[in-house]
Specification:
The chain contains nine helices and two strands, in the order αααββαααααα. By secondary structure, the chain is mainly α. Keywords: DNA-binding, Transcription, Transcription regulation.
Length: 207
């Protein structure tokens, strides 16, 4: 935790700010897999009280970024093969549901932007790093169109976990299969066929 810097004070420095900050530190490796976290030490280092630290840690535990054993330890979880597989399944259903939810109400401009990002995914086939970046850009754009509702915070929180668990995971299908998927998804988006679009997006994650 030595690399963590104090958070700047604001009128509302609450658990959400600490949650986002610690989540980012876990994703970028500032807080390493398996590293133990002590809330008192963390509160002192970030220059905040222990209450928002505890609330943020509980929230991080719910999405699987940390594990807590009362009176024993709190530590960053490790990214196992099993966790990656489970995250791919969750991501496939999450992204599929999101495109199903928004496609029929998207404006022409939003459809055009989605198609542009989809074309970037197609162009990135064969380059793992570029493919991951393009997949994230497309998924985040679609997610940004989902209306705010009771589930929004839940989805946003789990998006943080997916970023950590899948940031290194490239496409799960052969290049030719991806090109075909993207071509058919392009047709589904243009036709605003929500059911077909959902199935095709899920297939990109092997679901």
């Amino acid at each position: 935790m030595d690399a963590l810097e104090p958070l700047e004070k604001s009128k509302q420095l609450l658990a959400d700010a600490v949650f986002q900050y610690l989540g980012a530190a876990i994703i970028d490796g500032t807080l390493e897999q398996g590293e133990r976290i002590r809330d008192a030490e963390l509160a002192e280092r970030l220059n905040v009280s222990r209450m928002p630290i505890r609330e943020a840690l509980q929230r991080l535990e719910r999405i699987g970024l940390i594990e807590m054993m009362p009176s024993r330890y709190t530590r960053v979880t490790e990214v196992t093969d099993e966790l990656v597989r489970a995250s791919l399944v969750y991501a496939g259903y999450k992204c599929g549901i999101e495109i199903h939810a928004v496609l029929t109400s998207m404006t022409d401009e939003q459809v055009a932007e989605a198609l542009r990002l989809l074309d970037a995914m197609d162009e990135a086939v064969g380059d793992v790093d570029a493919a991951i970046a393009a997949r994230i850009a497309f998924s985040r754009y679609i997610a940004s169109l989902v209306s705010e509702n009771v589930y929004s915070q839940h989805l946003k929180d789990f998006d943080l976990a997916l970023r950590r668990n899948l940031h290194h995971v490239g496409p799960v299908a052969p290049d030719a299969e991806l090109h075909d998927n993207y071509a058919r998804l392009r047709e589904a988006i243009t036709a605003r066929d929500a059911g077909a679009a959902e199935r095709l997006v899920r297939a990109q994650f092997g679901v």
